Amino acid sequence: MPFCVAIDGPAAAGKGTVARAVASEFDLAYLDTGLLYRATGAKTYEGLSPIDAAQSLTADDLARDDLRSGDAGQAASRVAAIPEVRAALVDFQRAFARRSGGAVLDGRDIGTVICPEAEVKLYITATDEVRARRRHAELIASGEDVSVEEVLENLRERDERDSARAAAPLIPADDAMVIDTSDMTIDEAVKIVAQIVSQAMAARV
Ligand code: CDP
Ligand code: CDP
């Protein structure tokens, strides 16, 4: 079984930032699984049903430039609650998690559903307020005119929907290590995760 790092957690906790840095440091492939749900949600704006959208997803759909908006996040979380949508996306993610060179995936159900046998399972979190401030800064930088309060409400609504759904809910795997990055800089969070990955790699040889 190739090496797999599974990173889950609520919205804007810093999962992707840490995942990308660790993948690059250890030369592992990286998949942002949230993008699959964001692209599926965005395709429904064009009139496709969520299931048809998920089943017809292409690389071009993942490269759309409107996927990082608050609305795309909400659309993602709505389609992500539909079991048939999740089923349409599962094989691609499971195959990616088992790439021969090893992989890092981040999302909501990586340690619980996509790669339950991952050597490293992390649940990265931060307080609601910290996460809202971080995402707000990103959205403002990308030109979206939105207040911190609106971002906070958007994140909370999404986290609640993601945690309450029956299909692959957002929940730490029993054997996941929980890392609260509320008081950490990006460098500090990356360093801690890199140490965990390095130890896990050393333990398997
Ligand atoms: O992937 P996820 O939605 O969990 O979060 P992200 O997109 O990686 O991070 C959200 C924002 O928080 C980014 O702008 C990061 O630069 C910033 N941030 C962070 O990720 N970690 C910290 N310790 C501090 C800030
Ligand atoms: O970056 P952020 O954490 O805000 O969101 P994301 O990771 O891009 O995910 C967007 C939405 O997709 C989430 O709110 C979930 O509803 C859904 N998602 C999921 O259900 N399962 C995953 N493995 C990844 C994302």
TrEMBL record:
ATP binds at G9, P10, A11, A12, A13, G14, K15, G16, T17. Coiled coil: none annotated. It holds the Pfam family Cytidylate_kin. It catalyses: CMP + ATP = CDP + ADP; dCMP + ATP = dCDP + ADP. Keywords: ATP-binding, Cytoplasm, Kinase, Nucleotide-binding, Transferase. Its EC number is 2.7.4.25. Residues 5-41, 57-198 form the Cytidylate kinase domain. It comes from the Bacteria. It is found in: Cytoplasm. It is an enzyme of class 2 (transferase). Gene3D superfamilies: P-loop containing nucleotide triphosphate hydrolases. GO terms for molecular function: kinase activity. Belongs to the cytidylate kinase family. Type 1 subfamily. This is Cytidylate kinase. It comes from Celeribacter arenosi. The lineage of its organism: Bacteria, Pseudomonadati, Pseudomonadota, Alphaproteobacteria, Rhodobacterales. The gene is cmk.
